[in-house]
Amino acid sequence: MRRVISAAAAAAALALAVSACGSSDSGDAAAPAESAVADPAQISGEITWWDTTRPDSEGPTFQKLIKEFEAAYPKIKVKYVNVPSDQAQGQFQTAAQSGTGAPDVIRSEVAWTSQFASLGYLQPLDGTRAVDNESDYLAGPLSSTKYNGKTYAVPQVTDTLALLYNKRILKEAGYEEAPKTVEELKKVALDVKAKTGVNGLALNVDSYFLLPFIYGEGGDLLDVQNKKIVINSPQNAKAMAEVTDLVASGAAAKPALQDSYVNAMTALKDGKAAMIYNGPWALSEVYQGKEFKDKTNLGIAPVPAGSVKAGAPTGGWNLAIYAGSKNIAASYEFVRFMSSASSLATVSGDLGLLPTRASSFQDPKVQGNPDVAVFKPILDTAVGRPWIPEGGQLFQPLLEGYQALLAGTKPEDMLKQVDEQYHGIMKDWS
Questions:
Q1: Which terminus of the chain has a smaller tally of CB atoms within 10 A, N or C?
Q2: Radius of gyration (Cα) for the chain, nearest Å?
Q3: Looking at the record's lineage, which domain of life comes first (predicted)?
């Protein structure tokens, strides 16, 4: 689940926020026929689902669930469309704005959900069959589905970041455990390179992956309570200096500014880098690498702490229904099925993704996946992100800033540039 947000998507978000003619007024409450179906199995029709998972390593599990759904609902046909995660936001906005080509159901990144809802593109779900046993959802993922007090999605998976590392390579360099601080990370990475010839750390030049350094120094992007933009702060300047030092010192290989996610993953899988930052969605792909045919060679540890704390971010994906769907009732049933405790346990057991329901963690399929057990305590202490309509637009300026930083821009100048872009997005914030 790569997290690069394209510039086109960000620009489209701003334009559409002004020109949207969504349907927020037409769907404030579900009709009785939609929310109280006598026999759900008799609902018929075809729905299209835009999935944003990796088609090779994650897609097969979700397609397996679709077959189970169609067996339980023989009169509903699901058209499965895999849309790259870095393209889905812009494509959905364009389709929803034009009124043609939008899917019935979309796998929406948590930061997109409130934005789509604010534009009137999502069907409200309160009181519908799409929302089943809401009290079972974890509080963090559930909060990302709300906008202006209403529910516009259901949580599908949640995630955070950890340090993934090659145990064999670290052991060859003299280390039995992963580094616990950024300072230790630098030392371990340099020792790995000196003693094994392998790059110690591969960086992913992406906004989400910059957040552990920001949070680790006590920084943030926004002060939501006071409607204040705080990206340009001394704490963040210190964090940016740490990142540049990792590269300048040789602890981290100098990353290409494009395709860094693929490059970092390939380096880890092929034994050309000992450590990377990544999340549970990456595990199914990591295990396909030659270094991890023996899964026990992969180490998973909390992200190294800055001077303040270990600051892993929270992320994840929701299931939302397009307000203009021609088959709302079938969409409700599909979302209900795909977000059931059993379906979430299947996804978690197969792929190591973190379920959003408390009860799913008790399922034998989930308990049988050791990776989930490692990630769960990291998730419990992860830093929450603001679920505001502008949240999905914050990544692109930060990505551009990250790229500029590694191209030689000073941390203070980089943060000033991002700050200016944020003020252009959030004009009424100080």
A1: C
A2: 22
A3: Bacteria
**Distance between CA atoms of residues 324 and 337, nearest Å:** 21
Give ∠ CA 386-261-204 in degrees, rounded to 5: 65
**pLDDT at residue 159 tops 60:** yes
How far is the C-alpha of 125 from the C-alpha of 137, rounded, in Å?
Answer: 15
The first and second tokens of residue 220, run together, are 């943030």
Tokens 């929701």 -> residue: 318
pLDDT at 36: 52
336, 130 contact by CB (below 8 A): yes
Convert 323-348 into a string of H (helix), E (strand) and C (coil).
CCCCCHHHHHHHHHHHCCHHHHHHHH
What secondary structure letter does DSSP report for 305?
B
Mean pLDDT check: name the lowest of 3-7, 408-412, 418-422. 3-7
State pLDDT tens for residues 73-95: 999 999 999 999 989 999 999 99
Render pLDDT for 370-385 as a digit per residue (tens, 0 to 9). 999 999 999 988 998 8
- Pairwise CA distance, residues 220 & 214, whole Å: 6
Rounded Cα distance between 285 and 265, Å, is 8
* Residue 399 to residue 401: CA distance in whole angstroms: 5
pLDDT, tens only, 233-245: 999 999 999 999 9
For residue 70, give both structure tokens.
């169609």
**What is the pTM (predicted TM-score) of this model?**
0.85
- Beta pairing partners, 122: 322
Contact (CB, 8 A) for 430 and 229:
yes
**Could you tell me the CA-to-CA distances from 349 to 53, 120, 281, 283, 313 in Å, in that order?**
16, 35, 12, 12, 23
pLDDT in tens, 327-373: 999 999 999 999 999 999 999 999 999 999 999 999 999 999 999 99
Residues contacting 108, CB < 8 A, separation 6+: 88, 92, 116, 153, 317, 318, 319, 320
Q: How many CA atoms lie within 13 A of 217 on its CB side?
A: 21
